[in-house]
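## retry 2 of 3
previous attempt timed out at serialization; input unchanged, resubmitting
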Amino acid sequence: MVCLTMLAPTTVCFLIKKNKAARCVLFCLTWLFVEYIMCHWSLGLPFYLVGYLLRFNIEFIQWYEYTGVLGGSLLILAASLVIYTVFSAKRKLLLTVLPILALPLIFSYLRFDKMPDTTNPDKSVRIGVAQTAFDNDLLMNSTEICNQIKSTLISEYDAGYLFYLFPEAILKGVYHLKYLDMSKDFLTLKRLNCSSLKSNLIIGAILHDTDVENGMSKRKYNSAVKINCDGYGVISKNKFIPVEERIPNFLGFLKGHVYSDDFHRNPNVNQVFQIEDKKTGFLICYEALLGEYAAQTGKEADFLAMMANEVAFSNTVAVEQYLQVAQIRCIEQRKWMVKSSNMGYSAVIDDKGVIRKKIMNSDAINIFSANIKCSDRKTFYAIHGDYIGRLSGVLILLFTGCLLFNKILINV
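## retry succeeded, writing output
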């Protein structure tokens, strides 16, 4: 799918044969617009963006708070275009143009250690972050996992935590969205919380609900459930891995023939939990790959919380890459983040993308303390989102219109 999508910029270059400058400019604009589509289309794979190539050195990408990842893609494409053009024409220009393109990187690097602290010192919090190592077999036994969670919470209890954060989808029993108290597992955790912890538990679970239209089939939600003495709060995942987690409606004919979790969205619920006076923006696994969506979620939050279940790629380089993506989300929004993962890295990341603490262990459950600073700042990117992609789409139309108009005049 990625290869097919990325054929668009190449096709544009093939169609425009004579005008070299127009071909190069339109290639860059089309590439950026295709990346924008990849971030917003239900079949898009947003990890394959050129801007993520700069993720290895966060000191050089602090300007992502203004542009997002598409700004990195624009810089790399522009640099590649300049090198190609200069080497095929006047090579001396290379020494002039490339330093100009390097200015964002240089500015970011020099400013990295001198950036002002925009967090609110009066709103710092402590959170208990769980790192789990449940394999696929154990994930099928929710009662056993619930018992392990209970024993771990009792042994590692800390009264200073705002809440305890657990990974995505570690409870996979048959839990009804509207009747969680009828579930033995959730009732056990609620009673423990009310009798001993006196805190909040936020845990990933798969919830079900009856489809009102036909009364028979069930809707399934990948959710973050908040448990306290007052009851339950639910945030459901709204962005899904294409096909694997949800088959788009226009590919509905594949249902029953291709495996899919077939999760549903719950758009009536926002993605922020408020506990006391602290607002936490939640990203559930795949949602963290979508910069603009993450910015909309975190815009009204004091910090971010990410829940992930990385059992499917636990022994691959994707675990490290996923953590680097989380670092970029923190830079884009200038928010701290706590990440709780199953079979991946659980971590604390500050508003400059620096990893303050990370852990990936082989024990069933491990809870560590995360000290988080809160901020109500809204960055330029958080407000405007992927404006570079939208602007590219407009410029493509204008540029193509000018080329067609010019061709008509020549023929006349």
